Structure formats: structure tokens, C-alpha cells
Amino acid sequence: MVMNILLKRILDRLVLTGNLKVTGPKGLSVDFGDGSGDLVHMHIKTAHAERAISFDPMLAVPEAYMDGELDILEGGVLGVMRIAFQNMGSGGIDATWSKAIEGLRHAFRRLQQINTAARARRNVQRHYDLSGDLYRLFLDEDMQYSCAYFEQPDMTLDEAQAAKKRHIAAKLRLKAGQTVLDIGSGWGGLGLYLAKSFDVDVQGVTLSTEQHGVATDRAYAQGLENRAHFELRDYRELNERFDRVVSVGMFEHVGVNHYRTFFDKSATLLKPDGVMLLHTIGRSGAPWATSAFIRKYIFPGGYIPSLSEVMPAIEKSGLIVTDIEVLRLHYAETLRHWSARFAANRDKAKAIYDERFCRMWEFYLAASEAAFRWQDLVVFQIQIAKKNDTLPMSRDYMAKCEKALQLRDMGHRQKAPAAKPARRRKVADME
């Protein structure tokens, strides 16, 4: 037998376009698709992996790759995901029973996202308390671990992440002396940028011990410890009120069960004339389950919402949506940069962890890029206020602020002496 009959039947029905070759455990190969595009060649090395992929391909393929039971000889993980995603919905995988498995995952998604404070902390620790040295291998110099903003397609990663901070800052319409809450403050880059650029007081909260330590150290290193303060704390424990609230890359961990809690709490944290900016991964399509691989190995408790799941919670909280922007393909480009940087530093990552971890991380980055390129993942930036007249009637103020910040940042870079790397790092941290 060339390969498992069930697997061959699935691939015959799934891969209608593209150029896929699959070599089975006995060394025999079968071609799938219409031969168009670049060749993707998978080698399933064990009968165990072949059986598992037949029954649950969306989880078993990454697991087999992690465990070394599947190799991708040509085309890489991105090529495999491209063929899978571009063929989904074309009469292929919808006809297989694996669709039913994904449907069950969607039906039970609420049980998987009971993110109490204690559980949320454990989930965050699983991912964000990995070694900071790992993240330094593939992130930009400011350690921005969220979607960059590519104003120009040829931007470097550092330039695009600086543009992202300007883009968010412009939507907050900040004034000197205001107080800002950063929910999910990461390694502190955004909070430090806002504190220094606008002379505001920033309080960041995170559940990651690793991120909290790095952010606090950076605040002291930049002399901003009196303007930017980071706490290891759940946002639900806060009782203060702020002029501005910003949250970037944290809402994906709230869980669909807790959206009402998130926005109700945000409403109490905002002053009467307050403004909030929420930056989150979302779906342009209908609600669906979190990838089984991502949920099990990368972001336990995570969930990517459709806009239809977010808006009712905002409306019921009494908050007003004042602007929505959908960033398409920006995260795909961000992930492309991260993947290239990780590949260039793979040996260092392996020294920190091991080969299995490296294969898992490679799959995570490439599969995520594929989902933003060929599936329905996007990024939502939702601007929210408590009063209808807090912000100007037109969006012109955003573009003006963003342009002013861009000119200022360019001036800072030009003044930085090229011969002093330490000084250049300081300027990059400000951006």
C-alpha cells in the first residue's frame, strides 16, 4: 500500500490546486493537486504519524513535525499551510469528517476559555515567561511582540514597529499630564514611548513575571521610573481611573466568556472624558475555534474573536465605538520578519531550549503567517470613548499627530551618533 487509504482520500479531496508530494513511511510518493505553483514535499516518516494525520490533520501535522515524525523536504511549513488554506472551502476538506472535529472544537470553545484570574496567570506564564533571550532572537530592538504597521512595504521590522506605536499614540489623542493605563504592557516598549513622547504618566499591568522585570529595568535605564510604572497585576484588580486606556495584543487572552467583564471593567477604569484604544487579532469571517495546535502548545486559553463577538460586549458596557480600523496583511509581514530572524538564530534558540521546541516555534510562526495571508485573520484597532463628543468629528487629528511623531522620530535618529551603539539603542527604545 502506497499510503493510508483514509489519508489519501482526504488529500485527494482537499488538494485540488497546488503542487504537493507526500512520501510515506515506506518511501513511496504520491502527487496531489494540479501541479501549479512551487513544489511542497512532505515526508511522513512513521505509520503512527500517518494514522494520526488521517484522523485529525490540523493537530497531528504540527505534532508530527515537532516530534520529527514528519519532515518538509521542500516548500517549508509556510508552503504546506498555503496549500491547505488555499484549498479549504473549495469542496475539499469541507467534505471530510475532520470538519466535524473542528466544529466540535468550536462548540466547546467556551469550556476551554474559563479564564479566571488564576488560570489567566498560568496561561500567560506558559508563553510569555519563556526566556527573554528567546524573544530577543527574533523581535525588533524594542521587543514589540504584536503586529507592526507597515506604512511602506519596504520598511524594516524596527521601522514598522515604531510606526505601530505612532499609529496607536495618534488614536489616543494624548495630552501632557494625563494618566494612561496599558493593559498587557509586555516588555514595556509602548508605555515607555508614550511616557517619553507625550509627558504622560503610564501604569502598565502584566501577568508575566519575565515581562514585568524587563519593563521595570528599562524604565529605570531610560530614567522614566517616575513616569512609567509596571505592575505584576490582573487588570480586574484595578480600581483607579485613567484618562486613557490602551491594550495591545492582550485581548486575545481574555476569552469569549469574559468579554463583558473586560469592557465593563474598562468603563469603570476610564474617566468621563476618557478614550481607549484596543488593538487585537480578529477574524474577518464568522466565529470559529482556536487552532488546536495553537491552543495546546502556544496560547492556552487564547481565542481570536470576530467583530460580531466583540461589539455586543462594548455596547452593553455603555462605551461608544468611535473608530474601527482593520489592518490586513500587516501581521503576515510581521510574522515573515520574525520567522526569518528566528531561522537566522535557530542554533541559539536550540541552545536555550531544544530541537523539538525549535520545530514547534517554526511551525507556530509559519502557520500564523499563513493564517493572516490566506485565511481570515486580521487585526482590529477599535477606538472607544465614554462620551460622544470627547474626540474631534473627523479623523484628521490622527494623521496630523502621526506625521508630527514621524518627523520628530526621524530627527532623533539623525541626531544619534552612529559610532555609539549604546546611544542608538536608547533612541530605538524611545521609538
From TrEMBL:
InterPro entries assigned to the protein according to its UniProt record, in alphabetical order: CFA/CMAS (IPR050723), CMAS (IPR003333), SAM-dependent_MTases_sf (IPR029063)
Stretch list, region Disordered: 410-431
Family per record: Belongs to the CFA/CMAS family.
Entry keyword annotation includes Methyltransferase: yes
Origin species: Mesorhizobium escarrei
The keyword Lipid metabolism is assigned to this record: yes
Keyword terms, alphabetized: Lipid metabolism, Methyltransferase, S-adenosyl-L-methionine, Transferase
Annotated Basic residues bias: 421-431
Coiled-coil region: none
Gene3D superfamilies: Vaccinia Virus protein VP39
This protein's name: Cyclopropane-fatty-acyl-phospholipid synthase
